[in-house]
Amino acid sequence: MDKVSGKLHSSDMGVNENYHTHLEEEYANYRKPPDGARIVRHNDESVREGYIRNGGKEVKLFTSALKAFQCNNRIVMAQRKHLDDFLRGRIIGRLECGRTQLEVSEELGISQSVISRLWQRFQDDGNVSRCYSTGRPRVTTPNKDRYLAVTAKRNRRSTASDLSSQLSSATGTTVSRQTVYRRLGHIGLYARRPVRCVPLTATHCRL
């Protein structure tokens, strides 16, 4: 390149063309699907098209191009995200029309185990919407938290291990020391070391 004019010489252009050709080859190799499968568009998503043997016949499966993997010569489908309510309705609608779970799995590219669980849930309670939870439930109830607080205030020298043992014997609930620390910390009770003082003698009292 000419530093003054900023123009590319013919030699520089040749180097750039070779570089871009190399990048295109690398990208093509990167996009090349393994095991002879090919990448196709299915349900607005790039997926890998593959086949498995099922009872003497070949079954086409669409699996995620990024998370599908092979195990014992079977393509195992990996679900990347939760199914929305619309897709759940499509699955139930096809099954109610007499389609088999395997046929629905082939058409929609969804694991047959997911379809089976969804269909079983629909038959049990008639609802296929996703259940949202607030997380793992607390191991202690408000009454048990109050028990820890009252016990700790009655005996200020009790350790977290002692309080955990007392709670277990009283309610049958086993908690860790860290849980006891957190529950007491919520009400302002924290671990303290007892103060060690020099014992006073009669001379000290006269002073």
UniProtKB/TrEMBL annotation:
It holds the Pfam family HTH_Tnp_Tc3_2. GO terms for cellular component: nucleus. Residues 145-205 form the Transposase Tc1-like domain. It is found in: Nucleus. GO terms for molecular function: DNA binding. It comes from the Eukaryota. Its main location: nucleus. GO terms for biological process: DNA integration; DNA transposition. This is Transposase Tc1-like domain-containing protein. It comes from Araneus ventricosus.
